[in-house]
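Worked Example 4.2. Consider the chain below.
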Amino acid sequence: MDQRAARCLDHTHAARLQHILEQQGYRVTSAANGRVALDAARANKPALIISDVVMPEMGGREFGQSLARIEPNLPVLFMSGYTGEDVVQRGLLDPDAPFQQKPFTPASLGTKIRAMLDQQDQMITYQDAVLEVAGVPVLYVPWFAHPDPNSERRSGLMTPDLGLSSKIGPF
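Applying the procedure from the previous section yields the following structure tokens:
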């Protein structure tokens, strides 16, 4: 998986987040603040941006609005140590904005990012899928995808997507 994710976060969590994303196969571009992230988004064309809600120079809401003017279809996942409800009540974020509360686990973050990218691609993908019958694993598939049932009519023919995993090697 060679998806690109750009992020702009405070430096205390930046290294941990970058490590998590790289372990999950994402290529990461860092930005010190929202203004630098806007320039990076123009130059790098990321698949997704992860942004803190509270940042120096430009808050998350202002960043999201500015980004929407230059890249209207680019998904943004906002993060904060505040709860989602608190962020909305303070007027820091719109109620329908994608949000991940800190702290988070690598798995929960990966699930959230994958869901956002799948929605954009209108495909649902699975990695390391296991089919179980009565709790007993009977089939393992390293990668599987199908069209999102909520998308417009899509082909039933699924073309394979090649990749490389640190866990299983090439697939």
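The first helix runs from residue 11 to 23. Residues 6-10 have pLDDT under 50 and may be disordered. Compare this with Example 4.1 before moving on.
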